[in-house]
Amino acid sequence: MGGAPSTPRNSGGDDVSVSEYLIATFVGEKSFPLASDFWNKLLELPLSSRWPTDRVQQACELFAQSNGYTRHLAKLLIHLSWCLQELLQDSDAQSSIYKKAVNATYISSVFIKHLIETGKSDCLEELHLSLDETEPVPHGFVMDQDIQNFVMHRVLSYIGSTEVSPNSYVLHQELLNFILVTMSTQLLSGPSPGPRDANPFIDAAMAQEKSLVCLAVRRLLLNYISRHRTPPNAKSYLYSDGDQQGILERVGSAAATFVLLPLNYLVNNSGGSKNPLAECSLHVLLILINYHKSIMNDESMTDKSDDSATSDPVSKVHVFISGNTFSKALANARDVEFDRSDVEGNAHPTGPHVRIPFASLFDTLGMCLADEGAVLLLYSLLQGNSDFKEYVLVRTDLDTMLIPILETLYNSSRRTSSNQIYMMLIVLLILSQDSSFNSSIHKMILPSVPWYKEHLLHQTSLGSLMVIILIRTVQHNLSKLRDVYLQTTCLATLANMAPHAHHLSAYASQRLVSLFYMLSRKYNKLSDLTGEKLQSIKINLSGEDDGVSEDLTAELQIFTDFLRLVLDILNAILTYALPRNPEIVYAIMHRQEVFLPFKNHPRFHELVENIYTVLDFFNSRMDSQGSDREWSVQKVLQFIINNCRSWRGEGMKVFTQLHFSYEQESHPEEFFIPYVWQLALSRGGYSFNPEAINLFPVPQPVEKEIEDGRGEVLEGKEEKVQELNERRIVFDP
């Protein structure tokens, strides 16, 4: 039992027979102890070996049957840990150790993935992450230690402590893929984390000491920032040799679970990624920081009722969410160039923390915000890391970050997912909570906006462009999507910006008044329909209302709130920023008839009063110029500018200045965990058996896209998004 199998002679340099023999032995019924030389032979296979897909699948099926007895997965993970430890202790370790680590990582990933996909038990017992009690234990190995903790400690240690270089690139890539595979146990559970969910490897990662977690988070962020290209010496391993077509390209359209061993089947070759290490690092980081573990605490009490002579124990169960060390590490990350405590004397949390170059991270995010993963990372930083948020707000080149967001929102009708739109709008809402942000964006002038096609935008402020895009998003949503949450987010952001408006452009001002007119028409139509429906019920005296009138009443209330919010936005500009915004005065004067139906309306008259106070002020002065005077656009605008100097706001009612803030849901994981995994499956080239996925619904068209390894996973899958995003915007009086 302790010996190593003899390997067939390899004549002619063909390693296929050797590879197949050793893999067949690994998945067979004979168990080899940890100290057997078999493991050296298995892990010293050439990195260029190839093994056909059908043989890999067959090997996985055999392994699933034998692993419970042989415990070869546990032993392979221990050997992987030992290889990584040796590499960490000796940076000049022989290349044979490096090769063994790569092989151990990849082979483990293949078989773990199969066991997770095909597992039948709730606790993933098929993994058998322990050694048999009769196993001869090598010197220095503790028998009862958790193997998943042992290997995750070594994996995170190597990733966190070793720089990415041409000589270490392949192992870094494989270790990230390994983490992704081991965390895919989440795909088997429902969207709401439960106390019975089995995620042994990700729980092991969460259990690591804070210093190691900080090192790992730092490396993942640096990988994302650095965007390492695949070095030439790694391409022969990750793709193919010579001028042949890449193997992933050859099998990319096949519904195959595995490609050839030990070829990396997780690299995003189908998407043409130039930075697979950066993308994989981002996906791993997002999955880690959004993980939530439900813990069930069973407390026993005694039920002592008056009519009972005996006392029966009653079990009271409490379910709570454990902390996330990776999320805390990201939230406490600091800038390498500037430690706030040195200047302000504010103490940060004690202990180790992540230090990264905020400037490089800001620039990288600005380049990548068309990608949903980048938006999620930006959201996580702005929502959780006050240092990074402050850094962003003091940058003088906010256009680096805002222009990609606004352009994506402009093109949102072209296959942009609703999830991505939501996250971008939330980012804008978070930024708009800061008054300095709202002021600075109006001072930044853009020479042109070539991607905006409906109107020539020349010398437009960034603030005006943001107003234009938000209004356009609202108008598009009114006609197509009819999403209340999206409308509310856009209008809340505009309300935060309104008191700080500065030289709002003519086009932005016109769009704002046009938005009021569009909403008013919808409101009037709903009001008429609601009245007719109620009158019809009274006449028929049937008492039967099929719910249509209730739906109409609810929709009418929604548009009442929208209309009041737009009037609040106009009021805020006129009350706090009128002298700085003559174009908004011109737009209101030009379309003043649209406000007339609401002048005496019981729900809107107090908000319309201020608008008419402004109209009366400028109309009266214009009338005093003489009715026979010819008024061109430029003359009217100059007249308004001149009279703005004498505007004192007399007669204006001062309403409470609106301020909306974003508040994360109490269970954000129900939205973010499925969303992040959708991105990992669609962007990372990583495939998973669709029939085994319970984390989110996978309809037939999406299933084909996952198998093909291309396309946008879960397009049109946002039914749950609106439900999960409700009540996220809070009005701060």
Automatic annotation (TrEMBL):
Keywords: Lipoprotein, Myristate. Pfam families: Dymeclin. InterPro entries: Dymeclin (IPR019142). It comes from the Eukaryota. PANTHER family: DYMECLIN (PTHR12895). Belongs to the dymeclin family. This is Dymeclin.
